[in-house]
């Protein structure tokens, strides 16, 4: 195959072009420029103090721009939000909620993990001296629980390792048998076929006859120990029981191992994800103005004029600048009177945001570690709660906060309509089917539906393939003197890296324009 054919078959993707050396890899460093003590005379108004807004102000400050960051909330970070004791929130149409966690305990309500290959996110942690630790995304000791009316494994908690080992065994056995029967069209020499079969045997732990009969990967009925206790390997589950019980449902897909952005190792800041926006805030300083709700976005050609409401005083103010970087989530942007072009307004109108709910649940003791030997990682279920995340920090401590629910789409919409008390009841009841210890150990909880959180109205932007082709390019261009940043203005939606990459891109576009005169 020629390089041209390869590129065409790869859809002219950036990764394909990069693999052939046509494009360099994305650089692993941020701008890494010495701060410019000489102002360049240009003022930039940044809308929103989420990661994109903070990073834009940080990088523009290095280049001598005068920046002001207008933020509607009383905190910085946007969807990088760590819930702690005393945190309050009132959802749209909802009731006020105050977090009762003990001091030192927290829930990362928004972003919770940093992929090791998100170079720019890692670089900012390094540059701003934010210590990080391992985030346990993948844990074979976690459970899978299928709520079903049929199947020998239905309504039982089973270890992820058990299902993964058995399904891998049966799959490799099936392929090995097909090779024996010459049922696969393999353009390989006999020597290569033998090598492939040898790999299948190792991958699936098949016996000499290429049969899967279980293995220590599944786990033990009696673990090995001292003296004469050699250990008894547990029998594998029957393939029929796994399938019939619903454990091949997409809810149990092993995305944590295979999906590029969730492959181990993942990281998290020590002390909570809000350590990242707090570190930016220390550098950006008084450029951030809180409690400033954007009321109008106007072009003055040249320049911009922004009208905002000071929520503390109830007074309206306006600020003028040479340029604007807008990082507001699209559901918020579309509700603000503006002079934005029809193309930009179309993106705001037609790109939906993810409906997603989470709940943090504090327990008297870390029973998942003490009783179930689970240290970090995720339990998955087809119930409404969808997932339980186990904290990778504070291990062996006296207490802990589980993320007792993390769901999406219709399930999140359904749960989001419940009262705070009913959400807690649902998470408690469903979680108790997996961990009976809930009943004795539960203390308090804090839940949120991101699609009902003011100034966010959703978890992240969702582009269909068609929408990305039709609409996304608008987010990569300036609309006169207005530029755009945020995860929705990147090819990494839902990730902090998307916010950072888009901020960097917007700053580059703006600075090149100014530098060119």
From TrEMBL:
Keyword Electron transport recorded: no
Molecular-function annotations in GO: tryptophan 2-monooxygenase activity
For biological process, the GO terms are: auxin biosynthetic process
Organism ancestry: Bacteria, Pseudomonadati, Bacteroidota, Cytophagia, Cytophagales
Family named by the database record: Belongs to the tryptophan 2-monooxygenase family.
What are the EC numbers?
A: 1.13.12.3
User: In which organism is this protein found?
Assistant: Siphonobacter curvatus
Specify the domain of life of the species encoding this protein. Answer: Bacteria
What are the protein's UniProt keywords? Auxin biosynthesis
PANTHER family on file = FLAVIN MONOAMINE OXIDASE, LYSINE-SPECIFIC HISTONE DEMETHYLASE 2
Name of the protein in its database record: Tryptophan 2-monooxygenase
According to UniProt, this protein's pathway is: Plant hormone metabolism; auxin biosynthesis
Show the Gene3D superfamilies listed in the entry. Answer: 1.20.1440.240, 3.90.660.10, FAD/NAD(P)-binding domain
Enzymatic reactions: L-tryptophan + O2 = indole-3-acetamide + CO2 + H2O
Is ATP-binding among the key words of this record? no
Residue ranges annotated for the Amine oxidase domain, each copy included: 51-509
Q: InterPro entries in the record, alphabetically?
A: Amino_oxidase, FAD/NAD-bd_sf, Flavin_monoamine_oxidase
């Amino acid at each position: 195959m020629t390089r041209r054919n390869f590129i065409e078959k790869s859809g002219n993707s950036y990764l394909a072009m990069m693999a052939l050396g046509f494009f360099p890899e994305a650089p692993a460093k941020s701008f890494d420029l010495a701060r410019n003590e000489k102002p360049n005379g240009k003022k930039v108004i940044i809308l929103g103090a989420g990661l994109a807004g903070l990073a834009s102000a940080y990088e523009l400050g290095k280049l001598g721009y005068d920046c002001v960051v207008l933020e509607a909330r009383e905190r910085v970070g946007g969807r990088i939000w760590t819930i702690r004791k005393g945190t309050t929130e009132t959802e749209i149409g909802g009731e006020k909620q105050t977090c009762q966690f003990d001091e030192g305990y927290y829930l990362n309500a928004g972003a919770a993990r940093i992929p090791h290959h998100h170079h720019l996110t890692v670089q900012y942690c390094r540059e701003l001296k934010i210590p990080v630790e391992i985030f346990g995304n993948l844990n074979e000791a976690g459970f899978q629980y299928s709520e079903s009316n049929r199947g020998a494994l239905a309504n039982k908690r089973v270890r992820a390792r058990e299902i993964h080992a058995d399904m891998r065994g049966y799959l490799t056995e099936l392929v090995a048998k097909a090779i024996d029967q010459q049922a696969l069209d393999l353009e390989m020499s006999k020597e290569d076929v033998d090598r492939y079969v040898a790999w299948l045997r190792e991958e699936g732990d098949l016996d000499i006859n290429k049969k899967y009969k279980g293995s220590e990967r599944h786990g033990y009925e009696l673990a090995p120990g001292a003296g004469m206790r050699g250990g008894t390997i547990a029998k594998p589950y029957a393939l029929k029981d796994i399938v019939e019980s619903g454990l091949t449902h997409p809810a149990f897909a092993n995305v944590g191992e295979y999906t590029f952005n969730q492959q181990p190792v993942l990281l998290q800041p020590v002390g909570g994800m809000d350590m990242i926006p707090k570190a930016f805030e220390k550098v950006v300083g008084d450029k951030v103005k809180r409690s400033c709700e954007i009321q109008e976005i106007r072009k003055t050609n040249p320049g911009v004029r922004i009208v905002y409401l000071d929520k503390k005083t109830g007074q309206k103010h306006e600020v003028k600048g040479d340029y604007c970087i807008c990082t507001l989530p699209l559901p918020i942007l579309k509700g603000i009177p503006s002079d934005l072009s029809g193309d930009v307004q179309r993106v705001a109108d037609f790109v939906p945001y993810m409906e997603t709910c989470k709940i943090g649940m504090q327990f008297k003791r870390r029973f998942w570690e003490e009783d179930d030997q689970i240290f970090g990682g995720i339990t998955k279920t087809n119930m409404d709660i969808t997932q339980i995340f186990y904290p990778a920090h504070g291990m062996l401590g006296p207490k802990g906060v589980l993320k007792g629910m993390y769901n999406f789409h219709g399930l999140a919409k359904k749960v989001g309509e419940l009262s705070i008390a009913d959400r807690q009841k649902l998470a408690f009841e469903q979680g108790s089917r997996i961990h009976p210890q809930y009943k004795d150990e539960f203390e308090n909880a804090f839940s949120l539906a991101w699609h009902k959180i003011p100034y966010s109205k959703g978890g992240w932007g969702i582009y269909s393939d068609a929408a990305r082709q039709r609409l996304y390019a608008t987010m990569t261009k300036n609309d006169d003197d207005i530029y755009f940043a945020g995860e929705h203005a990147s090819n990494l939606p839902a990730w902090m890296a998307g916010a950072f990459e888009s901020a960097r891109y917007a700053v580059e576009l703006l600075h090149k324009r100014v530098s060119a005169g």
